[in-house]
Amino acid sequence: MSLGLSGADAGHLAVALALTYALGFERAVRGAAAGDRVFSLIGAGSGAVGIIAAHGAPNAAAGAITGVGFIGGGMVFRQAVGRDHVVVGLNTAAAIFAASAIGLLAGQGRLLVAAAATVFALFVLEIRHIRVLSMLDGRHWASRFPDGEPPPVRAEPEDGAAAGDP
To answer: What are the distances in angstroms from CA 96 to CA 7, 27, 72, 134?
Structure first.
């Protein structure tokens, strides 16, 4: 079996690029560090790996997903905000993972599933920003429910002793 690029494979690669560009465009509009170019490159690379996997090397897909996990991991940071720490970049990291899966699907010729996954990912990313759908955002309801975990209790030292002194 030849791995030469056929017309159908080129079309699958173009679909992978277009669908992941749409995800990247949404991330760029929302000010994420990774935007349309990064997502398009991930989609094109994953699409190419999907084509290779469809032509007899299924383990290639596992390697691509693992590699993209490292890229996504590099997007996650912990920032200090006052006395608290906030984790940023999780949405972009998850969207990068989704873009890789979408690229693999399109590369393997599963265009309907790839398109549906793109629509669902865009829906999840935009739910907070669409007035009618914002009712489905968990943050809208969070104030009405108690936290699942109580905040950590900070022990105050007694009689001016330093924390940790016996």
So the answer is: 27, 10, 6, 23
